[in-house]
Amino acid sequence: MSKYICSMLPAFFVLTVVLPAVLSTSHHLMCGNNPEGIADNDWELLHKLVKRWANATIRHHDVWEVTVNLDHNDGQLLKIGKEKVEVEEHLEVASKTFHMVNYFSIGQESQVGMHFDKHRTKSQTCNLFVYGAAGFVQELRCWGVQHVGNLVANLYKGDRKDNANLILDSEGDAGEPQLIGNPESLMFLNINSYAGGKAHLWQSECDVGVDPPPPSGSLSDEQDPGDGKLEVVTLPVIANIALDNLVHQARRVCQAGSYFLEYFKNEDGMNIYFEVDGEFYHAVNPDSTVVKLYKKLQVLQKNKLDEAEDSDSDWFDMDDFVPDGMGCGF
């Protein structure tokens, strides 16, 4: 009986997942929403995709909830304006929740990203120079560089402040795990890929980012986007992102299922830049941030044989292919 059920699984998958996707896609194609090249050569590309979907592995991918809480008296959350990109618009909220599938980060790379967005062009090549220039200018402004030890007072496991679960302390309290150095970025990673795959920051050979270090073996798991854990690392300087293929300088801090961040207070105001899946924000006088698991998605992972046969250039952007309404809504 079990053999019979196993033999039926591929057919069940095609009927319940692939066929509805194809039918929905066909509807959009007939309505004129035709991804480039999908109908060429007697629908060769569509045939190829359906075959890959049927051969793919079904796995889980975690979706995370990032809630940024602002000071009730003088907190602000700013984002690049839609009409005037050089202006930061006040979002008029006391707290905001984001959904994240890839990464959440705090610090200098987010400040650079915010300034890059203000001068973004329509040319990908030009944008590389714009981002490089934004990073260079922001690093020259040494008085304005973001450093984690000046921003994040404490980091805890769990979704609330609990001294028994303290991971990182920047206040210098004796006996607590102290932040090593004063890195420019603190990153929460759901996937081991950053900057378009140019950096793989969670590596077993990387040093630990707090002293004393966590218990032996607590940082040894490989990264898995469906295991209900986020990996936390610090980056000494943002140049480590570009140089990661040559040398891994990220420092490992923790692997856990939820986090609570507590920020420093300052009479002159605290300005903290953060990023959620490529969207940059500027928080003025933030109070805390809670990061916790929201839900799990079932996704298709490309078969190893397909990876060997095809280069990345053979795969078109799925964002251009998936019809409206087929995406995973939150």
Provide an overview of this structure.
There is one protein chain. The chain is α+β, with helices and mostly antiparallel strands and 330 residues long. It folds into 2 domains: 2-56 and 302-321, no CATH class; 62-296, Tumour Suppressor Smad4, CATH 2.60.200. The chain is built from 8 helices and 16 strands. The chain has helices at 2-30, 40-55, 108-118, 124-140, 148-151, 239-242, 304-309, 318-321; strands spanning 57-70, 76-80, 88-90, 95-100, 103-107, 152-157, 166-169, 178-179, 185-189, 210-211, 230-235, 251-256, 258-263, 271-276, 279-284, 286-301. Strands 3-2-15-14-5-9-11-12 form an 8-stranded antiparallel β-sheet, with helices on one face. Helix 1 packs antiparallel against helix 2 and helix 3 (108-118) crosses helix 4. It is globular. It starts with a helix and ends in a 9-residue tail after the last helix. Mean pLDDT is 80; it is low at 2-32 and 311-330.
Whole-angstrom Rg: 22 Å
Q: How many domains in all?
A: 2
Name of the CATH architecture of the largest domain: Sandwich
Major sheet: 8 strands, antiparallel
Mean pLDDT: 80
- Write down the CATH class of the largest domain: Mainly Beta
What distance separates the N and C termini?
38 Å
Strand order of the largest sheet: 3-2-15-14-5-9-11-12
Protein name: Diacylglycerol kinase accessory domain-containing protein
Domain Diacylglycerol kinase accessory: 99-280
GO biological process, one term: phospholipase C-activating G protein-coupled receptor signaling pathway
Keywords: ATP-binding, Kinase, Nucleotide-binding, Signal, Transferase
